Amino acid sequence: MLSVIIPTYNRKGLIKYTLDSLDKQHHPEVDFEIIVVDDGSDDGTYEYVINNYPNVTLVKNIQKGAPSARNAGVSIAKGKYIMYLDSDDLVGPRFFKQKISFLEQNPGIQACYGEYDFFESDNDFRSEYIIYKIKYPIIQSTESGLRHLSNYLSGYYLPPNAIIWRKEFVDSIGGYDESLSINQDVELFIRAILNGLKIVPVIDDTKVYIRSHTLDKRVGSTGDSDKKYLEILELRKRIISEMKMKNINDALCLQSLSHYLFNFWIDLRKSKPEIAAQFLSLAQKTYWPIQLKGGIFLRLLSQIVGPVNAIKIKGMMR
After folding, report:
1. Per-position b or e across 134-158, b if 16+ CB within 10 A of its CB
2. Are 112 and 99 in contact (CB under 8 A)?
């Protein structure tokens, strides 16, 4: 059985599209349950689900945050496999069948992921609503942990709702970190990789559809919050420490992380100089000198005066 875990908060106007996409008729030959965890909605979401979707297991998890809601869902899940789905996204017909079949036939693989598209709408999905965004690469090798790690350290992520996990593996690594207000999915995936996750794509003609809309803002954005910027920084420090404990000294991974931190310095150096300085300091400690990506002038200047001064000089020339 597959358990689909859906945390929600004030999504009465959108969750119907998510739950309708999970109608049994769209996913024949797959045994699955739907668990919706309501995080204290006050717009009638909870009542709407009770009254209209009697086959859904509904749980209250009042204002404890999405990580806690996901963990609460997993704690009562009956499935051998789990999928985390946002309450505004949609699962295309037959998405589950080949993924579950693959995991059944490959017990050494702890997770797999499928294809996805982004769409822009405050209503139901239509193909003409699909928008272009850069997608995560299809990495076929089961021995690709460092490549995934490098991607994630550079800020290049696989949408979590395109992944189907073995529940026992998620349980073994402790599920979501409930202390985090940002980067929860990133932290879970990196922790999974550091604990030996083997994940491969299962590519067929099915997709998950990820909503990009204006009705609300995703909690995962920084929102120009000092607290969230510092949390991002502290999480990277923790990841570096865990990599050292596991003797992971891959140059590409360290360089990717340094670039990621350095880009935060670039973005924040004028608006939040004190926080920016902390990102720069950690970038320098992680991997230095970094190679700047940009035009020939910027790259040559970086070689002569260093990446930090090159950015400063370019800024003065504007």
Report:
1. eebeeeeeeebbebbbbbbbbbeeb
2. yes
The vertex-53 CA angle with 48 and 56, nearest 5°, equals 110
C-beta separation of 219 from 66 below 8 A: yes
Alpha-carbon span 3 to 33, nearest angstrom: 5
Structure token digits, residue 256: 């990717």
Q: 201 by DSSP, 3-state: which?
A: strand
Task: Write out the two tokens for 195.
Answer: 């604990």
All domains of the chain in start order, with CATH: 2-211 (3.90.550.10), 226-316 (no CATH)
DSSP 110-141: -EEE-EEEEE--SSS--GGGEE----------
pLDDT digits (tens, 9 = 90+) for 84-95: 999 999 999 999
- Could you read off the pLDDT of 57-80 as tens digits, one per residue? 999 988 788 999 999 999 999 999
Whole-prediction pTM: 0.90
The strands making up 32-38's β-sheet, listed across from edge to edge, are: 57-60, 32-38, 2-8, 81-84, 163-166, 111-113, 199-201
Please name the residues in contact with 74: beta carbons below 8 A apart, sequence gap of 6 or more: 3, 5, 82, 167, 170, 171, 175
Locate 114 and state its tokens.
Answer: 């499928």
CA atoms of 299 and 281, how far apart (whole Å): 21
DSSP per position, 16-52: HHHHHHT-GGGSTT--EEEEEEE---SSSHHHHHHHH
